[in-house]
Amino acid sequence: MMKKLFIIICAALLMTGCGGSADKTESSGTAQASPVAKNIPNFTAKTITGETVTNEIFAAKKISVVNIWGTFCPPCIAEMPELGEMARNLPENAQIIGFVCDASEESSQIKKAVQITKEANANFVNIIPDAQLMKFMENVEAVPTTIFVNSKGEVVGRAIIGADVEAYKDELEKLLKE
């Protein structure tokens, strides 16, 4: 039920523009309240390529850039090539991870997500949210929304709503210095 509700909300966001314009990005220098919980929950999920991942994926790096996106969202799709480029040029202590908000293990959205990321040369991990991750994302207002997660699985920094890869880079640089 929660997954269906989230998909309906994501579809409604498409009709309102996905929240994808850069002018919706929060730009204050202070920490912004995150639209998600303060900690990533314990989860076991699959990637769009079929690998099993858990919340331990965050322990591998100091900071993970988590891009919450949907296969229905034009701004999400449009920023994929830039995210792929960013992923290829990240420092060793950072990574990008995608949460595909409209995909489930039995949905056709997985094939669409694979196609989108392949065409964009965005070769970073994209996760199909399980029930715990869906609950974690239930307060996300728009996609794309990008959050930052430390190695302990804690959400840090400010959430960025809308497609703004330069803002992601700036926030990541700030967080890596802390």
Description:
The chain has 178 residues and is an alpha/beta fold. The protein has a single domain (2-177), classed as Glutaredoxin (3-Layer(aba) Sandwich). It is 33% helix and 21% strand. It is built from 5 helices and 7 strands, in the order H-E-E-E-H-E-H-E-H-E-E-H. It has helices spanning 2-15, 74-88, 109-119, 131-136, 165-177; strands spanning 44-47, 52-54, 63-69, 94-100, 125-128, 145-150, 155-161. Strands 2-1-5-4-3-6-7 form a 7-stranded mixed β-sheet, covered by helices on one side. The radius of gyration is 15 Å and the shape is globular. The chain starts with a helix and ends with a helix. Residues 1-32 have low confidence and may be disordered.
Strand element count = 7
With strands numbered from the N-terminus, the spatial order across the biggest sheet is: 2-1-5-4-3-6-7
CATH C-level label:
Alpha Beta
Structural class: alpha/beta
